[in-house]
């Protein structure tokens, strides 16, 4: 899906890591929530409350998922899932555009 229609956009930005990761929250009529954002190069650790699907729209990252020892290289057009109530590490190799879907 290249665009979202009939949504509510929260004006206030979500800012993490001194502004190196930012996003905007998108709310759908059926209650679904997604964020659209940009990550600047760096290494970050994120915690999750809900299961997440992270789509990398453009850019390159490496991700270390919970319970794994191997880093996965993810590029534009690829995605990865993170379980609820966990954390993952991400190395952003270049400016990365992403969409995160929150499930459950």
Automatic annotation (TrEMBL):
<dbReference type="GO" id="GO:0009032">
    <property type="term" value="F:thymidine phosphorylase activity"/>
</dbReference>
<keyword id="KW-0808">Transferase</keyword>
<protein>
    <recommendedName>
        <fullName>Pyrimidine/purine nucleoside phosphorylase</fullName>
        <ecNumber>2.4.2.1</ecNumber>
        <ecNumber>2.4.2.2</ecNumber>
    </recommendedName>
</protein>
<dbReference type="GO" id="GO:0005829">
    <property type="term" value="C:cytosol"/>
</dbReference>
<dbReference type="GO" id="GO:0004731">
    <property type="term" value="F:purine-nucleoside phosphorylase activity"/>
</dbReference>
<dbReference type="Pfam" id="PF06865">
    <property type="entry name" value="Ppnp"/>
</dbReference>
<dbReference type="InterPro" id="IPR009664">
    <property type="entry name" value="Ppnp"/>
</dbReference>
<comment type="function">
    <text>Catalyzes the phosphorolysis of diverse nucleosides, yielding D-ribose 1-phosphate and the respective free bases. Can use uridine, adenosine, guanosine, cytidine, thymidine, inosine and xanthosine as substrates. Also catalyzes the reverse reactions.</text>
</comment>
<comment type="similarity">
    <text>Belongs to the nucleoside phosphorylase PpnP family.</text>
</comment>
<dbReference type="InterPro" id="IPR014710">
    <property type="entry name" value="RmlC-like_jellyroll"/>
</dbReference>
<keyword id="KW-0328">Glycosyltransferase</keyword>
<dbReference type="InterPro" id="IPR011051">
    <property type="entry name" value="RmlC_Cupin_sf"/>
</dbReference>
<dbReference type="GO" id="GO:0004850">
    <property type="term" value="F:uridine phosphorylase activity"/>
</dbReference>
<dbReference type="GO" id="GO:0047975">
    <property type="term" value="F:guanosine phosphorylase activity"/>
</dbReference>
